[in-house]
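Hey L., structure's done. Input below.
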Amino acid sequence: MLLALLPLRVIAFFQQVQDQDGFIEMDGERFPPANPREKAEWTFVRFHYDLGAEFRPTGYQRWESDYPKADRQVIQAVRRLTRVQARSTEQIVDAKTDDLYEWPWIYVENPGAWEISDEQAARLRRYLRRGGFMMIDDSHGAYEWEVALEGLRKILPGCPIEDLNDRDTIFHIVYDLDDRVQIPGTRYLSGDFHYTPDSAVPQWRAIRDGKGRIIIAICHNSDVGDAWEWADSSNYPEHPASVAFRIAANYLIYAMTH
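Output:
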């Protein structure tokens, strides 16, 4: 693959383009549009959110970072690493519509830029209380954590956020993940960004329901989605990429069985 030979500081800024037929071009590949009528046990569902006011002038929709390549590569990994029948294409959902309740697992990219209204928070709260599971990824540092936290407090007011430990079931349900490492985004590998003291240590956090089930799993100070996207690049380190796919397998199996 030619792109595997390009420096990460170049490939990190490629964006997806959707043509009139719905095909998405990204990273030199062409991905077909989602097929919502395909029957499957599990679908990679990506959450669409509104940008906070300070991010709107950029026009960059942070919820779609790494989309759709990361999503498709997770789907391939799930098919290889588990017995789950995964849909071949991803799905995008919004808290403003009722189809949110159709999916047992949703992925949130970069909540350090989101803005959640009271109505959207109420829908997400209902989704989680009905048995839904949310994976949150790619927030870095104290500021982005506070923005993410503001939304989480709206969704589940008063619910404590805990740091997970190595004994937690979610880290052992498919793979033993005692060797978790910080999963870097390409912007850090390229040298264009550097970890600050408040973003240098990976945090694996969660919110549980009243019965102890994890309903929101949080990967703070890591960019799991970037590892999914660039796992096929010779420039991306193998170990964090492997950990990223094992996290995906563990989290979705946990969501579907607890």
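The longest strand covers residues 133-139. The chain has seven helices and twelve strands.

-- N.
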